[in-house]
Amino acid sequence: xxxxxxxxxxxxxxxxxxxxxxxxxxxxxxxxxxxxxxxxxxxxxxxxxxxxxxxxxxxxxxxxxxxxxxxxxxxxxxxxxxxxxxxxxxxxxxxxxxxxxxxxxxxxxxxxxxxxxxxxxxxxxxxxxxxxxxxxxxxxxxxxxxxxxxxxxxxxxxxxxxxxxxxxxxxxxxxxxxxxxxxxxxxxxxxxxxxxxxxxxxxxxxxxxxxxxxxxxxxxxxxxxxxxxxxxxxxxxxxxxxxxxxxxxxxxxxxxxxxxxxxxxxxxxxxxxxxxxxxxxxxxxxxxxxxxxxxxxxxxxxxxxxxxxxxxxxxxxxxxxxxxxxxxxxxxxxxxxxxxxxxxxxxxxxxxxxxxxxxxxxxxxxx
Length: 367
Fold this sequence. Notes:
5-stranded parallel β-sheet; FAD/NAD(P)-binding domain; 8-stranded mixed β-sheet; 8 helices; 19 strands; disordered N terminus
């Protein structure tokens, strides 16, 4: 690390201290490379602590550990949000990763010398390499017609949802039938009449917790299909990727039969409003008191002032940005395979990024 005109310079700056950023840090540290991790939160793991109270991971503990440190729980236990947050905080300490919390990066550009400049308010950092390890799930995505719902209908996005206490008495419409929507719908069914609207995202055809005989199936789905077969370097993976970018992944922990047993009613997609109430794709109008939008989050990379985007998505090859040498991504949805955004899959992508940084560093040292 060196000072440069009151700016701190690092060989590599990792933006984001979640599982992706920590994983890249781990693999850089193993190579003896200089780096720093900048994270906007007050504590490592806060991105998990700020999610809904009852949240559990959708995959069991056997698949929730990062490289070098298994998750400390029974293999088929589903960790809570706070347990995952504490694990990440502990992981950074165990591996002595240099994380600087409370630094919200608001700009990334090249400076007059050609180095990367990372800005956080009045603070400036420069780097030879930058890894953007922030997830591409950043701003709540709510359809424009939501503003046309009646004023007495309570509306929350899953990003804001914490517990059923936030909702009014009466029926709830959960919009979005992915893992988050299924999880929240199941919880709300204990206190409300719940309708779940959205496309069928598919589901794993067995329960991944329970009998030891299911271990093979669980590993096959998560480690073979999600991790290897559904990858961008084969035709099957590219087809799955093209579909999953808009549809989302299959249900893993909460299955359709769990929702049916809890009395959750499945409905077609919501396409608009009529008389201030949700209008369904089949033309029916739903009389409800609450809406929870589990409709995902927008990608927001507007703070990156570099020519690397196409239709709002960063152009990269398995995390390596081809037209801006030294810039990398990790933790993006389907960066390389379905498992890229899952805890058990991010380490492979992080290792690839770290190896690419090492090659660039060696090339620069010999030039």
